[in-house]
Design goal:
heterotrimer; A mainly alpha; B mainly alpha; C alpha+beta; B: mainly alpha; MetI-like fold; 14 helices; 78% helix; C: alpha+beta; Dipeptide-binding Protein, domain 1; Dipeptide-binding Protein, domain 3; 2 domains; eight-stranded mixed β-sheet; 17 helices; 20 strands; 31% helix; globular
């Protein structure tokens, strides 16, 4: 088996490039993303040499907004992933390791959460909590851990049955030690994959919430909100909606290529 | 078997009650006085006080919840604060548009998923397989609202070949259907690809192959039926999700369905309408879950004979 | 499932979908004169006791009649159900003489009792009407609301076609409250039959009657054969398609599918450049003022210098540029077109230098970050971001807090809660009282005076003006009050929106009223 597949590598490079862009945004962005820098105000202007992706109706440079948008999207994506993974992995490991009553209770709870209309509840919650980074993270954590929990549980169950686990258990290792030293390292590759996939899911959910006006409030240049703001100008300025969408697509695809590429190499 | 069905039914009721409690709590922590939402910008304090008494907002929360539940059981979901109409009626009026779109989208995504999944599996480990994998990943990675927007701009504004939104006959269905189907089609093709791969490795297929059947014949004649099962299960649950309203697509295309209704409700913090649409959607999901469970009972003899699944 | 079954199922679903259309399409026999309109959202209600928004009022006006109404393009009182009226000198008694030929669309004659019933229905707490407050000044209303009386004693019916209102005190603008659809005559038998669903079974005496209403799709009105005015309405039907946002409206307009449309912002410059299209636009300054409120009880906005600085710091012309010039810069509280408006208020010009000096004098440090509460609405967010850009130039980092409408209204009413908020006020009556008293008197704290502004002299002037029926004297007092308010600057005065619509060349006599939705009965359509 190769150490890394071509798809994973491409995905990884895409993700890394985004991280570099986000980290160096103030250096590489040609303009301040919130200031009116264009000569026009009140209507969007098409791409020119000075503003390669055009400017919006508030005279802001679209390219700079997309570059700074990477910061917000990655922050939400990664933070949301961390919340999701923490809850999902904890519940999945516990259910898969302890089995019995713990498993039944946790999985029933997971079933109920899976059955709830997630997007609607997420929207309602953000609207009630009033849009902002914290409320978005809470909502993402609440609605998207279920898949992770299920997958991790299945993996933990099968790992727990392997000889080295049974041996360690018969030697009287404590559950904490068993989970930390033996179970977790063996489930880790899967957790990394789930983390990549959950980041891509979070990015899409965050973009959708922003598009519905429930994202991080302005002037933060979030990609989803940029598409929402472009809605008025679809006909006269389609580039306003096109470029931020491509940015979302690029980010999500990067994480997906990485995650699915790994799964495919494992033959799943 | 009866015990199994009853247990699943009980689970469904637990989910519904849970949803109603969650939505009720959300409604209760709303940082605004519902009376103000109802009475609008210009109301004086006296009017607000009267409305509060009228709605029973001065009662403790459990009394309000009990009243609400009693009405819901009778099919009365209350009245929208903003649209001033019965929530049940609004949902009933908006449901057909959503249902048609959901059915079309589901049909198209299944066709897409099956075709792509089967072709990829048939050419396993070859160039086509890899291309299809990347294509399906690209489809999964598309933000659905952006895809819809781009289709609307391209096919609607520039080509002028499709209606620009709203629900006006079969033509108006095409763009939103495509928008919805591409992503889930890509996803279904991955699922089918995986399950076909598993089934093709099983003994009875190996036997069939040994008897001289070509790989393609074995796949279409023998493996498909079994490999489709996980897909059908997933599609059944997805359909429930679609039927409960596709917020993003309906918003992009101005589709007069439940999703847009729910979005407007959330945008205006129209509490009875939010609770109504969320409950309705949970109800559909519960029903779909039950149906899928029954399908399994029918397909899997172990459950039929009363064993534990 | 075998794949043959599966493909069959798919085919079936597609067939079902193809066969299904959006319910029965609206069809009219050839020669029917139909006005096609479109809107993004559903009409909230057609129940005149309930509706309090321009979309509801547009169609309530078409279906119902009030005793008196405004002119088509102005806010002068005109007869409607009442042919004539008298107001007592002290403005406490109003007598209306009703026409005898008015009938509801179910054929029953309209009498004074129907108007009395309508007002009692609005006052009744169980109706939860937003209009109730306007009629509490009628003698006996308080007893009726409290359930101590079965009817409002102050509404007298000497005969079926005469109605007399006795007020508890002088109220020169009471007659304007009778032009609101809240006071429209409704048939008791129909409202009691349908209860809260009257909205979907509305019956009135107006020029049109409700024919079909499908949520999210369309509302259809047809002519009321019993309408009293001979030869009116000039249309046979009005269709409003719903779920059509501004951009789609415009494309439907271009395709000739709708007769009157709003003009989306991005298209507006092109429309004004085309002489043909420009000639088809209709516009009118609304009696509305858009403003930023500053809470005068919350530091640093307790300091008038800070409030003035914000007025100087914000470039209102930039806001108008974002609206394609569809507005007039506000220099004071009252909008032009409102009786009592005076053009010689000066307001605050754009002067960031001066703003900066004032902020320094007041000791406001760089990086001061006030929170602006606002409605989560696309256009409002656009304007707020422009304000944000302006304030950044004078060292203020404005934080936006977009929330839903209900929470916004609730939040601004709480004392010491919202430092700044973005709202608009639209006149209900053509009188300065409707702006100044309602928005700036201490009597309205925790109600509509959301800046918690208080100036004893302003309160005194307004209390003195309220009962005066002599317009010249009345307006003089209000003008003085407005002058002080502008100087104290509890608001950043932003702009008065101008409404623009565009009609098809075959649509005639479609006019915009500055305060009310367009009336449809005189609109006509030439062959096309």
């Amino acid at each position: 088996m190769k150490r890394i597949g071509a798809m994973e590598l491409i995905g990884l490079l895409m993700v890394l490039s985004l991280m570099v862009i986000a980290a160096t945004a103030p250096l590489i962005a040609p303009h301040d993303p919130t200031r009116a820098v264009a000569p026009t105000y009140g209507e969007p202007a098409p791409p020119t040499r000075a503003f390669p992706l055009g400017t919006d109706e508030l005279g802001r440079d679209v390219l700079s907004r997309i570059i700074y948008g990477a910061r917000i999207s990655l922050t939400v994506g990664v933070a949301g992933m961390l919340v999701t993974m923490t809850i999902g992995v904890a519940i999945g490991l516990a259910a898969g390791f302890f089995r019995g009553a713990v498993d039944v209770v946790l999985m029933r709870f997971t079933d109920v959460m899976l059955t709830l209309p997630a997007l609607l509840l997420a929207m309602a919650l953000v609207a009630v909590l009033s849009p902002g980074l914290v409320s978005i993270l809470i909502v993402i954590g609440l609605v998207s851990w279920t898949t992770v929990a299920r997958v991790v549980r299945a993996e933990a169950m099968s790992v727990s049955q392997r000889d080295f686990m049974l041996a360690a258990r018969s030697l009287g290792a404590s559950p904490v030690r068993l989970i930390a030293r033996h179970l977790l390292p063996n489930v880790l590759p899967l957790i990394v994959v789930m983390a990549a996939l959950s980041t891509s899911g979070t990015l899409l959910l965050d973009a959708a919430l922003s598009f519905l006006g429930l994202g991080v409030p302005p002037p933060a240049p979030s990609w989803g909100r940029m598409i929402e703001e472009a809605e008025l100008y679809f006909r006269v300025a389609p580039w306003l909606a096109a470029f931020p969408g491509l940015a979302i697509f690029y980010a999500v695809l990067g994480f997906n290529l990485f995650g699915y590429g790994y799964l495919r190499r494992q033959g799943r | 078997m009866l015990a199994y069905v009853l247990r699943r039914l009980g689970f469904g009721i637990v989910v519904l009650v849970g949803t109603s409690i969650i939505t009720f709590i959300i409604a209760f922590v709303v940082p605004a006085d519902p009376a103000v939402t109802i009475a609008g910008a210009k109301a004086d304090p006296q009017t607000l006080a009267l409305i509060r008494t009228q709605l029973g907002l001065n009662q403790p929360i459990y009394v309000q919840y009990a009243r609400y539940l009693a009405r819901v059981v009778q099919g009365d979901l209350g009245r929208s604060y903003i649209l001033r109409q019965s929530v049940t009626r609004l949902i009933a009026e908006r449901f057909p548009a959503t249902a048609i779109l959901a059915l079309c989208a589901m049909a198209l995504s299944l066709v897409l998923g099956v075709v792509m999944g089967v072709v990829a599996a048939a050419y396993k480990e070859r160039a086509i397989d890899n291309i299809l994998l990347v294509v399906s990943l690209a489809l999964i990675s598309l933000p659905v609202f952006w895809l819809g927007t781009m289709l609307l701009i391209g096919a609607g504004f520039y080509l002028r070949s499709f209606p620009l939104g709203g629900f006006s006959g079969a033509r108006s269905l095409i763009l939103p259907t495509i928008t919805l189907a591409l992503g889930s089609g890509g996803y279904y093709s991955r699922i089918l690809h995986t399950s076909l791969g598993e089934v093709m490795g099983q003994d009875y297929i190996r036997t069939a192959l040994g008897k001289g059947l070509s790989r393609r014949q074995a796949m279409l004649k023998h493996a498909m039926a079994n490999a489709l099962l996980p897909l059908v299960t997933l599609a059944g649950l997805d359909l429930a999700g679609l039927l409960s309203g596709v917020v993003l697509t309906e918003t992009v295309f101005n589709w007069p369905g439940i999703g847009r209704l729910a979005f407007e409700a959330i945008f205006n913090l129209d509490i009875p309408l939010i609770m109504g649409t969320v409950l309705f959607s949970a109800f559909l999901i519960v029903v779909a879950n039950l149906l899928v469970d029954l399908l399994y009972v029918w397909l899997d003899p172990r459950i039929r004979l009363g064993e534990q699944p | 499932m075998r794949n043959a079954d599966f493909l069959l199922l798919c085919a079936l679903l597609l067939a079902v979908a193809a066969a299904c259309k959006s319910g029965p399409p609206v069809q009219f026999p050839p020669g029917t004169r139909v006005l096609w309109l479109a809107a993004a959202d559903d009409v909230p209600t057609l129940d005149p006791a309930v509706g309090y928004d321009s979309a509801s009022w547009a169609y309530e006006q078409a279906i119902f009649d009030t005793l008196v109404r405004y002119g088509d393009a102005n806010v002068e009182l005109q007869p409607d159900l009442a042919l004539s009226w008298e107001i007592s000198k002290d403005a406490t008694r109003l007598t209306f003489h009703l026409r005898r030929d008015a009938r509801f669309s179910n054929g029953r004659p309209v009498t004074g009792a129907d108007v009395k019933y309508a007002i009692e229905r609005v006052l009744k707490p169980s109706t939860r009407s937003q209009g109730a407050e306007y009629y509490r000044g009628i003698a006996g209303a308080a007893d009726f609301v409290a359930g101590r009386a079965r009817q409002v004693a102050g509404i007298e019916l000497p005969d079926p076609y005469t109605i007399v209102f006795h007020l508890t005190g002088p109220d020169p603008i009471f007659i304007h409250k009778l032009t609101m659809p809240f006071a429209a005559a409704v048939p008791r038998e129909v409202t009691e039959k349908w209860g809260e669903d009257f909205s979907h079974h509305a019956v009135g005496s107006g020029a049109f009657k409700l024919s079909q209403w499908i949520s999210g799709q369309r509302l259809v009105l047809v002519r009321n054969p019993y309408y009293f005015a001979g030869g009116l309405p000039k249309l046979d039907a009005v269709v409003e398609l719903t779920g059509v946002n501004e951009e789609l409206q415009w494309l439907k307009y271009e395709a000739g599918e709708i007769d009157v449309s709003s003009v989306p912002s991005p298209e507006f410059p092109a429309v004004m450049k085309s002489p043909r299209l420009k000639a088809l636009t209709i516009h009118n300054v609304t009696v509305t003022t858009n403003y930023l409120g500053m809470n005068c009880q919350m530091a640093p906005f307790t300091d008038v210098r800070v409030r003035r600085a914000f007025n100087y710091a914000i470039d209102k012309e930039k806001l108008l540029a974002l609206l394609n010039g569809r507005g007039v810069v506000a220099r004071g509280v009252l909008p032009p077109g409102l009786p009592g408006y005076t053009p010689d208020v000066t307001g605050y010009p754009y002067d960031p230098g001066r703003a900066q000096r004032l902020l320094e004098e007041a000791g406001v440090r760089k990086g001061f970050a006030p929170v602006l509460w606002m409605r989560a609405d696309q256009t409002m967010l656009l304007l707020a971001q422009s304000v944000q850009q302006d304030l950044a130039l004078v060292g203020v980092n404005l934080v936006l807090k977009p929330v839903a409408w209900g929470p916004l209204l609730d939040a601004v009413r709480q004392p010491h809660n919202t430092q700044m908020f973005m709202l608009a006020w639209e006149a209900d009556f053509p009188d300065p009282e409707n702006f100044l008293e309602v928005l700036f008197s201490k009597r309205q704290w925790r109600s509509n005076n959301d800046t918690f502004f208080y100036d004893p002299q302003v309160d005194r002037l307004m209390a003195e003006a309220a009962p005066i029926a002599d317009l010249a004297r009345r307006f003089e007092l209000y003008r003085e009050a407005e002058r002080i308010i502008i100087g104290q600057a509890p608001w950043v005065f932003l702009y008065h929106p101008v409404n623009y619509l565009i009609r098809q060349p075959w649509v005639h006599d479609y006019v915009i009223n500055p305060m009310r939705p367009t009336r449809l009965e005189k609109v006509w359509i030439s062959p096309h």
